[in-house]
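Q: Hi! Curious about what Galactosylgalactosylxylosylprotein 3-beta-glucuronosyltransferase looks like structurally. Here's the sequence.
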Amino acid sequence: MDGVFLLFVAIFTAYLGTMATRMKLKLKTVFVLYFTVSLMGLVYALMQLGQRCDCTEHDMAKDRAISRLRDELHRLQAQIRQLEEAKPPQKQPSKSSLPTIFVITPTYARLVQKAELTRLSHTFLHVPQLHWIVVEDSPQKTPLVTDLLMKSGLTYTHLHVPTAKERKLQEGDPSWLKPRGVEQRNEGLRWLREDRRDGQQGVVYFADDDNTYSLQIFEEMRNTQRVSVWPVGLVGAMKFESPVVEGGKVVRFHTGWRPNRPFPMDMAGFAVSLKLVLTNPEACFDGEAPMGFLESSFLKGLVTMDELEPKADNCTKVLVWHTRTEKPKMKREEALQAQGLGSDPAVEASPERKVQQRRDDNR
Ligand code: UDP
Ligand code: MN
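A: Let's find out. The predicted structure is below.
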């Protein structure tokens, strides 16, 4: 197209030359005509610059090159993995000298479980020297959690213990009536006391599967001496609850409900040194504690308010949120299932129906 236009301009110029000679036109007129046509040519050429060209051929060649390079990359990555596996284990002084963060997470089968654990595992992947202790509220380890942990790329321990029937919320109970995840947190503590008797440098944190954690909170807690504390966002029907710090010490708590509890804090708002957990083998969560006293039941034998170590800029930053996930509606799924058109059960979006059903029946 451009070639045709240029040819046209050339022919037109030659034609003008001939005409000018024949018609004895003034040089000025010829020049003006010549200038106008050239200008049109320039404008046309500029307009063509922004146009897409027919690059299918070009793109295909590029795609082929990209796919070749990608194959090569995968081949090299596999080679690196193989070589690394063959290497004798090496000490990584900078990493392994960090105190380990043992995160204890109770979890139970429900529709959002896989989504919660996926999000949580992706947060933890960004945290160095973290050991995830996942405790399922179930009589056996479930395939969903087993598989998720195996593929997670994290250092983990997989445990399970079912909540006793009388401690479980019953159908229609409000969620606050009974504490949740108690036996599971205690099982995590039991494992630590059995397996980590050597008392390596470490810290223990109880991370529910539905909360939201910034990466910073893990670095705040890493060097906990006894018990460190910080604010928790979106909890207790408040924007945040928090220890109040004066002169570097916790002097009281900002909370809207029973501030005189020994430790009016959410589970997500403190971490305990591994040493303190190991030297106090009796310390555990009391499932029978009155509502709001679960955290206190664990902490009261371990520490006094005066000894708490305030983190997150003297408790002025919110770095963890007590978020809660909405229960998904299954109205259309159920309607389709009634017609035999339910979602393919071989595709794992959530725990299998049977598990889900059993849990719902228990509630
Ligand atoms: N949880 C559990 N079994 C249950 C209910 C809850 O193991 O029957 C776990 C849950 O996965 C979470 C923790 O216990 O990690 C706290 O539960 P939830 O988030 O429901 O409590 P809330 O946010 O209402 O305090
Ligand atoms: Mn929760």
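A: A fun detail: Residues 78 and 129 are 25 Å apart (CA to CA).
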